[in-house]
Amino acid sequence: MNTVTRPRILVVGAGFAGVECVRRLERKLSPGEAEITLVTPFAYQLYLPLLPQVASGVLTPQSVAVSLRRSSRYRTRIIPGGAIGVDLKAKVCVVRTITDKIVDEPFDYIVLSPGSITRTFDIPGLTDTAFGMKTLAEAAYIRDHVITQLDLADASEDPAERASRLQFVVVGGGYAGTETAACLQRLTHAAVKRYPRLDPRLIKWHLIDIAPKLMPELGDKLGRSALEILRRRGIEISLGVSIAKASPEEVTFTDGRVIPTRTLIWTAGVAASPLIGTLGAETVKGRLAVTAEMCLPDHDGVFALGDAAAVPDLAKGQDGAVCPPTAQHAMRQGTHVADNVIAALRGQPLRPYVHKDLGLVVDLGGADAVSKPLGVELRGLPAQAVARGYHWSALRTGVAKTRVMTNWLLNAVAGDDFVRTGFQARKPAKLKDFEYTDAYLSPEEVRARVEGAGRARA
Ligand SMILES: Cc1cc2nc3c(=O)[nH]c(=O)nc-3n(C[C@H](O)[C@H](O)[C@H](O)COP(=O)(O)OP(=O)(O)OC[C@H]3O[C@@H](n4cnc5c(N)ncnc54)[C@H](O)[C@@H]3O)c2cc1C
């Protein structure tokens, strides 16, 4: 077999979209038809919707990190690293490996699925103070941080310090923020029983959002149910409010309130991966503007999908509507884009992506949940069964399914031991330390590097 003449397909990012795409390519293409390469900094696909359960200790971090190397049928070459720039004209992707080596990876077809990063705003102190909820390390770190606050508050004789360590602020009333606040409140509510010196009434969780409603996708009635469940559990919800400034020991809300706190969790939306900015191509609110076939217009062999791309939402039937950044769309786009790459390779017509949203599931911990599968509004245990059933069936491997199910059962039967591991205790890490957003080249730097490498080879 002559490997040199095989077309090279390069997939960037091993998330919901990238992994579905690679698996489909492996299944549908014979090894002689194309060479498949995947660029990814991690050896796993992260099941992001279950991150709040990792932060609250219901699931172990390993159970939501789905291995990329489970089967000998997986023949894709994996480059451990991150793409830091793409030259679309020269068809070269610049990769920084996990050992900090910069390598050029030529391609004939590229599938861009690097996902998104936490969207931040120019709020004084935000990136130095807040935690995000986008990576496995962040979720594990936040759990340790929250338990640390209970330990330190318990040891402190200073009432002001106690009060500030026992207040927690979550910004963002979408599903990520709401589930995070709900799951972590359950953690502190259960843990405080082990601290007889602490007054449970001092523990306060704040969930705030600049929008007038929590999770507007749920609709009015179900959104109100979620709000009532959280308020009943003592979470203080403030709508139409954001952060004016943040510092390590207090957060100022835009309504003027100053909350003494050591914990600010920021989940107010996502922005496309900075990799998209290195292309010098058209974007829609930062996401790469692609056709319904997920192709970049005027660039043969360039595909993009998932959170990083603005894929037209044909099922909505509205001009200019784009698919929301959800795992539901990313997974389906992954399979679909693989079919389109194969069609392009074989000179066949490409098909547009159409998917009608199946609804939303929101796990608020324990028996609390709201779900809207196919438009049916559910609350309590039926909603929880749908939420967990949906996530469980969407986990890709049998091992991940077994781990998650075992963790759920173990947690239900034995509970949590609230152990602080001391992870990064002396070097606190914040949003900017987890998401490596400064690793990327500018379009000019990409061009200069690729041209320089070309001249050196000539
Ligand atoms: C807390 C939380 C809860 C959520 N809950 C839900 C839910 O209930 N339902 C739902 O549908 N959606 C949910 N989402 C959204 C969903 O997770 C995303 O929409 C989905 O992950 C997008 O898939 P993706 O493949 O585009 O990106 P991702 O799954 O984020 O994958 C991107 C991959 O690319 C890698 N990467 C990044 N940059 C580079 C680079 N430069 N080079 C190489 N690789 C790179 C990343 O490490 C990652 O592995 C939730 C998100 C969060 C954060």
UniProtKB/TrEMBL annotation:
Organism superkingdom: Bacteria
InterPro entries membership: FAD/NAD-bd_sf, FAD/NAD-binding_dom, NDH-2
Pfam families noted in UniProt: Pyr_redox_2
Coiled-coil region: none
Gene Ontology molecular function: NADH dehydrogenase activity
Domain FAD/NAD(P)-binding: 8-334
Family stated for the protein in its record: Belongs to the NADH dehydrogenase family.
PANTHER family: NADH DEHYDROGENASE, NADH DEHYDROGENASE-LIKE PROTEIN RV1812C
Keyword terms of this UniProt record: FAD, Flavoprotein, NAD, Oxidoreductase
Official protein name in the record: Oxidoreductase
Native source organism of the sequence: Streptomyces griseoviridis
